[in-house]
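Sequence and fold
=================
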Amino acid sequence: MSEVTLDGRGRLTLPKEIRERYGDHYHIVQLHDGIKLIPIEDGPLDALRSEFADVEKTAEELRQEARNAALDEAGR
């Protein structure tokens, strides 16, 4: 874990090893106890395609499975 400090203008400089690993673009998410930086891929659509390349079901099939799981969990 690294420690960083905001400069006088409110800027945060991430350590080089973090930038090299995760890139230069982030979403900042506010949590109840802090913040979280989520890296943004240079090509977000390419990242999604590679993330889901092995999924063989259609979006509708996945949606229906999620709906059924939610109903089962709610005690249908």
